[in-house]
Amino acid sequence: MSESQHGADATQPPANRKSDVPTRPRHVDRRSLILGGAGLVIGAGVAEETNAVARTPPPTEPNIPSPGEELMVEHGLLKRVLLAYRAAGDQLAAGQTPPAKAIIEAAQLISTYVESFHEGLEEAYVFPRVRQHHNDLVKTLLAQHDRGRHLTASILLAAGDDLSSAPIRDSLRADMAKFVRMYEPHEAWEDTVIYPALRTLTTQRTLDQLAERFAELENKQYGDHALAQMIDRVSGIEEQLGIADLSAFTP
């Protein structure tokens, strides 16, 4: 029987399947081998850690944030009020009349939470612990706290007056601009110098005690979920001023 009758030569691999003859292995350099091995080790470590986290039962009690973390979150709240002040000032500059209620509520939030509570914690518990190393900075921060309270009182007074009056509008706009200009660097210096210094200069035991003390004072003065309540208040202020949509700030 001819080859044409039996089909293709049996010594050749079928066209529709791979050859049984092993091909020459691709050269792998030492660097690739080391990096590949490292990747396997790292990958295995991450997998083990992920599994360990998954097996960890959830805490029975909520974690209390560290003093620095708590104060920085409160700074986030302050930043949003500064945005409200800036928006109201822009509206005044454009000849518009922003809702007086929004400005009053923003200033009241500053007065009753930021100045009375947040700055009170800093002055009583934070500044004394870092003053020896940052005396001049602490003096400046204290002076700005005092100046801020005077500006807040002026803002409340002007916002409750006749906003159709040009002198009152100008005074209100100027005071809000001064407050924003002072507090943006103020909180930046605290976040990058004072709070890290507090952590460096204070034992973990004392930091834990401070965290518990901060939470205790906040709950006593404002009730449970105080910060969430304040965020709800600032959200309402943003709605009134038309700045509640974060995407609107995207250039």
From TrEMBL:
Q: Where is it found, in Gene Ontology cellular component terms?
A: plasma membrane
Q: Name one Pfam family in it.
A: Hemerythrin
Where in this chain does the record put each Hemerythrin-like domain? Answer: 69-158
User: Would you say which domain of life the source belongs to?
Assistant: Bacteria
Task: Name the source organism.
Answer: Antricoccus suffuscus
Report residue spans for region: Disordered.
1-29
**Protein name (database record):** Hemerythrin-like domain-containing protein
- Coiled coil stretches, renumbered: none
